[in-house]
Amino acid sequence: MSQDLLEATLDEQFPPEQEETPEFVPVPHALVPHLSETAILLDIDGTLLDLMPTPREVWVPPGLARTLNRLLRRTSGALALVSGRSLNDIDLIFAPDQFPAVGGHGAEMRLATDAEAVDIHAPPREKELKRRLAAIAKLSPGILLEDKGYSLALHYRLAPHAENAIYEAVSLIRADLPNAPIEVLPGKLVCEIKHSGFTKATGVHELMSREPFKGRRPLFIGDDVTDESVFGIMPEFNGLSFSVGRRVRGVDGHFDAPRDVRQFLARLLDDESATAAS
Length: 278
Hints:
Number of helices: 8
Structural class: alpha/beta
Helix content: 25-40%
Distance between the termini: 64 Å
């Protein structure tokens, strides 16, 4: 029997062990530079906070606000929430705490807790277009319309059967109005329609050009399709990116769920305190 045939036979009888992919890939803290050199950028829904049946049902777990405020101090203010939600909505969720933030998928920004919002001049939506998009919510009970100011979101977590009908209706509107400057963002059981030209990535670009974020190494954590634009620009800043709930090509690490993100952020503080004490 030839050597090649022998090896092939042995391979069939004793196939090589398949390396199992772990359910959770820990994010090594050694990747993260000292907090004095880091800008921490965090998506909210599905990243910091657990997803709920409706957007209004999300809640801030005990201890999270304290962790974020401590990170805000340790980074000298270079911590920001990066969300499709409006700044007003973000503030309502975290009240009475307030954090620097990029809201509305990059349409508005606040650089510091005591600063006025910096509007990135997203133009208002045309009223008729807004009315037609909002009417899609009437296709089925359970479709929830969320007006975020700079975008409209159609949540169908309570009506998953309506997904195809929602996207077909949006496609028909876009076909009727081919010049309308809108962009459709598919998400986790949500279809979001926003003005084109503004993304979380454009907002983060603007944020990273301003103090106290300028010159720091960004660390971004996100979970949804809308966060992929930010994952894509992290190499421009020698930054780090981590996905939540799903593995995304090109990121530096992965978390299984928001609770793992919250634990990671708390450990960043503990590890740095331990280093300083040693």
